[in-house]
Amino acid sequence: MGEKKTALVISAHAADFVWRCGGAIALHAAQGYEVTVVCLSFGERGESAKLWKQKDMTLERVKVARRAEAKKAAEALGVHDLVCFDLGDYPLRLTEEDKLRLVDVIRAVQPAFMMSHSHYDPYNTDHMYATQVTLEARMIAQAWGHKPGEKVLGAPQLYLFEPHQTEQMGWKPDVFLDITPVWDRKRAAIECMEGQEHLWDFYTRVAQNRANHFQRNSGGQSSGRAAQYAEGFQSVFPRTVDTL
Fold first, then answer.
1. Which residues, in sequence order, are CB contacts of 182 under 8 Å at separation 6+?
2. Residue 88: which of 11, 164, 18, 13 has the closest Cα?
């Protein structure tokens, strides 16, 4: 048997991994990757307006509902392990203990690649904070002096998935991934997020637009083939190759 293939997604809120990289998760899961998703919070305060409009709603009931949605979506995408830190949102904050817990997850997974949010997001600072923490945890996981004797992390690429208003975030994709073969899984996962139904069709349109960009840039790389749905990502670190 070959070496186990793994990937890690670090999501600020319970729905982010669905909208922004659900296709990548499903595609790699279908290819045999064990994809772990860490949800730092459930988005219970700031991203659950539909639930809060219900009579006599409580914070705990919102969290229960969002956890259930995330679990159902993760199953639809083929997520290997959904890890919920339950740290609260708006604002999201991690203690040193929380950060070291994330380091432990990174080392345990030993991902071939990682995914998180854009570097900058003035509309939702939880997002860019999650990426700041991800970079810090990645660095610690690489340190031989942190918990000596444990297997250290190599140098997995960190892909930044698409934010909600790309022009305002300074996010510039340099990778387009064709997710057409698994679009039905992503759409099923999207529809699990009942607390944010207003985003279902928005992120369907995003995937269709990115498919156009995939095809426009695919000549010589992906045979110039058409795609119906795609996702865009921005890589943080240089990519090492043997051929161009």
1. 23, 26, 27, 30
2. 13
